Structure formats: C-alpha cells, structure tokens
Amino acid sequence: MVLKDIAPDAAAHVPAMEKAFLKYNEEELLVAYAKLFVGPNELLAPPYGSIYLDGERRVMGDSTMETIKMYEEAGLKMGDDFKEAPDHIAVELEFMYYLIFKEIEALEKSETDKALDFIKTQNLFQDQFLKKWVGLFCDKIKAGTDNEFYNSLAGCLSVFIEKAQAGDELPVALKASAV
Fold first, then answer.
1. According to the model, what pLDDT value does residue 27 have?
2. What CATH number did the domain enclosing 93 receive?
3. What is the pLDDT of residue 36?
C-alpha cells in the first residue's frame, strides 16, 4: 500500500516535493531545515508536540509524559543514547509507523483482535496528539520559509494527518470494530 492509496490528497503534494528536492542543493535544504527546526535563534517551526499542546512554549510538558506512557504501553522504551525529545515529530511519526507495522504483522497472522488493538492505539494517538498539533506545526513551516520542498512537505503532512484514519483499509466488518 502506498500513500496515494491511503491519502490521495496528501499524495498530491509528492510531485511538488520531488521537483523542489531536485531544485535545491544539499546546503540550501540544510540551511532551511536549520532555520525552521534547529535555530540558533528562535525556532520558526518547533518540531515538538508539547510546544503546541501544553502552552507556554514549553518542551517536555505533560503531553510529552503522556506520549512516553503510550510508547511504554506499546512495549517501547526510549533508548538511553537517544538525544531527541519523545514528542519530536519524527519520533511520533515513527511510533505511528511501528503501530502500523504491528497491525499489518497481526493481520498477516490472522490475529484480528491484536490488529484491532493496534488500530485503536493509532487512532487514539492521532486524536490525542498528532491531530491537535501537526496542522499548527505545518502552518509554521509554511510561514517560516519560502523553500518549496519544506512547504510541499508541510502540505503533505498536514493533509495526511488530517485525513488518514487508521483502519480505513480494512474490510467493512473489521472497520466497525476498530472505531
């Protein structure tokens, strides 16, 4: 399954991303990345959920602790050598990937109940975290740069998070159980 099957509106941004990626050299992409997400001054688009969810532009807030709890409930633990905040967009998207992978693995083994549990966790995580902050994050990316690659990436991500729903690809009988 590919993006165009899951979220065609999000996939519509991919050709512009590809074109823009080829337009810029590596240094231009890295500079734009640093300005948006790293600093050295104020971050134009902070990539941390807690900044948007907890107010006060604070990292490692209550929402971060809740994401850690969800990771742990799924059997995951942050590695001691991992240096990024648990609510970084890349970490949260990786968690969603993990849940989707486990869902597919369970379906391949005909473990429907297990697959449904992973789908429910995906939907819960999306509703409690991603859908509440990723749109704002993507808006900040678009406002913070004229780099076409990052603007297209933000468009793709915001539409994907807004429209994709875990379990959409399931047969109707299973889909009803997943909600």
1. 97
2. 1.10.3480.10
3. 97
